[in-house]
Amino acid sequence: MIPSVVRLSPGDAKTLPPEGFVPVTGPEPSPALFLVHAEDLAGEWERSLAAVLGEEERARAARFHRAADRDTYAVTHLALRLVLGRILEVDPAAVPFTRHACPGCGGPHGRPGVAGDPVHFSLSHSGRLGVVAVAGTPVGVDVERTASAETAAPLVPRLHPAERAELDRLPEPERPGAFTRTWCRKEAYLKGIGTGLSRPLSQDYVSAAPEPAAPPGWLLADVPVGEPDMAAAVAVRRHHI
Description:
Blueprint: E1 5-7, E2 24-25, E3 29-30, E4 32-37, H1 44-52, H2 55-62, H3 67-88, E5 97-99, E6 112-114, E7 120-126, E8 129-135, E9 139-145, H4 149-152, H5 161-168, H6 175-193, E10 218-222, E11 230-237
Parallel strand pairs: 1-4
Antiparallel strand pairs: 2-3, 4-8, 5-6, 7-8, 9-11, 10-11
């Protein structure tokens, strides 16, 4: 799976999703990936926020202390609603969001979805960058700024033993970047299966090497976001497990 990414701009608001980016249901699922930047919040996007975002989304956005984090959260959620509204042929403000059952306890706080599961989605944002993934099967996406050595150090021991060994074999300057891509792959997969970080990070192997290793029944790929200090990954469930 080689993912392709479309960067959304304010002018796309009337034409989403671009032709050819409806989730594909061929021999293997192919997620549609949309990239947004916080600076794209200006103009048409900004005027859409109050009319499109739900009360809970607006409340969560308001809780961010940094304006940049608030803007990125808002524009990523706006992009998600615009994409899903176009696919489902409903007003973006009326997308029927729901929650799947938690795989661990069965409670209504698992992977987010839309009623009836006509399409699956995931989103992630970090710094000034957001990514939205849409697919015909469960999907997870994650984007992160490259971790510092100090940030990565306490988290590396929580990874899969084989991933820790791969990181240990790398020259020290390469480890933060390799750790970050591993973390993105791991979190994308855990979001896709609906557990999030409640599942032990040591349980599933996704590889710290340049090529990801997909857990059984899943496809996993790094996502090119065009930012040298950022990493991203997408995981999508195969049609048949």
